[in-house]
Here is the input.
Amino acid sequence: MPYSSWTSMDSEFLYIPSKAFQAGQLSEERSQYAITVKLFLLPKSSFSDWRLHLQDAIAAVLEELGVDSVDLLIVSFPGISFDAESEERGDCGSASISASDTELLDATIEAWREVETLNSKAVALQIGVAEFGREQLQRFLPETLRRPTVDQINVTDCHVLPESMMLFAKQENLELLTHNDCTNILPEGTLRELLGHGEKGAGVLASSGSDGKGLKGDVTPQWVVKYTAVDRDRGVIENKGYFASVELTDEASL
Here is the structure.
């Protein structure tokens, strides 16, 4: 079956699958649910596109669930990872940064302005960050107009949060949440496998042995958004899922 039969396209995007196949709207009133959204901005995404990525990701979730707001929006920025050992030692740098400190902080603040806009419009009722240590929070918080209320930290390598971090969070009225999300949530190799012509592939991308069928070019993951809608009364997840955005670069333009 050609991919064109179950995908759709507008002037800018190819939707896989077509929006016509998406039927995730909630069965009860919006107030019945606690909806959490986590956006992963990926390493090869451009700083200048982060605000647009935030807009696109939240719009996709709102449309999928048929709601106009989410209870908590958490943003995970590339290049920031919580370092429990440094935190325990009391090192100044309690989170490792892979990009220039100043450049990354400026990009993070600029993207956070979009998060603040979503919060001011009651689209995201609570807002938070992921993987920020004390040093990053000390630099980040004074630059915000609307402060995050949550900092989500990976517990895969940190089974118990450092006491120093918990004390700092208490002082800043910041709730610490834990997660075990994969640190490399959408590797390029996995993405090409999913979209290629392999045994479990969708047949969207051309590959060796596909007789030239499919889209040609390099694919670069831009963002992944994860959402869950929990029934408040029953405490069960009624709806959960992911959306991802990928940039296809035509080989001719490389």
